[in-house]
Design a protein that fits this description.
Helix content is about 70%, strand content about 0%. It is mainly alpha-helical and about 160 residues long. It has two domains: about 110 residues, no CATH class; about 30 residues, no CATH class. Helix 1 packs antiparallel against helix 2. The termini are far apart. About 10% of the residues are buried.
């Protein structure tokens, strides 16, 4: 329903601008309606997306639309899912643009792996999470980048 409303609002804004202005104004109006500024978000959207407030108006329209889509699904999440969503959006908001780029690239690489390899990685991640914090810290130290930037100790392949 929210998507239909946004599309409808964008179409109206585009039609009005086309009737009264230049093509540049029409394109700007369409982008504005399809990816609203922070001030145009609902109170609920602002609450859900609060960690992104400072940077919202600098985000590309496509990224804003994605975040709005996630916010629209938020009310249907379980309490645990909502908690995890909030943790992740806060972590994401603290990343630098370079760190975000690296995270996106890792995500693309993982998504392109064969299903059995992804399942193996999920299992290994689950095993890692079950380890005591001291052991996880030890493993992180082994994997930390070396001063020469070539990476730390390599894990043996499975």
């Amino acid at each position: 329903m929210a998507k239909a409303y946004v599309a409808y609002a964008a179409a109206i804004a585009l039609a009005v601008t086309l009737a009264s202005g230049s093509p540049v104004q029409a394109a700007q109006a369409h982008a504005q309606a399809a990816a609203p500024a922070w001030a145009q978000l609902s109170t609920e959207q602002k609450t859900i997306l609060a960690p992104l407030e400072k940077e919202w108006d600098t985000l590309e329209p496509e990224k804003r639309r994605r975040w709005i889509g996630l916010a629209a699904r938020y009310p249907r999440l379980t309490a645990d899912q909502k908690h995890r969503f909030q943790q992740r959006i806060e972590e994401w908001s603290r990343l630098t643009p370079e760190q975000r780029g690296k995270a996106r690239e890792r995500y693309r690489q993982l998504k392109n792996l064969p299903p059995e390899r992804r399942q193996e990685l999920r299992q290994r991640w689950h095993e890692y999470q079950q380890l005591p914090e001291e052991k996880r810290e030890q493993l992180r130290q082994q994997r930390a980048p070396a001063p020469d930037g070539k990476g730390g100790a390599q894990q043996s392949p499975r």
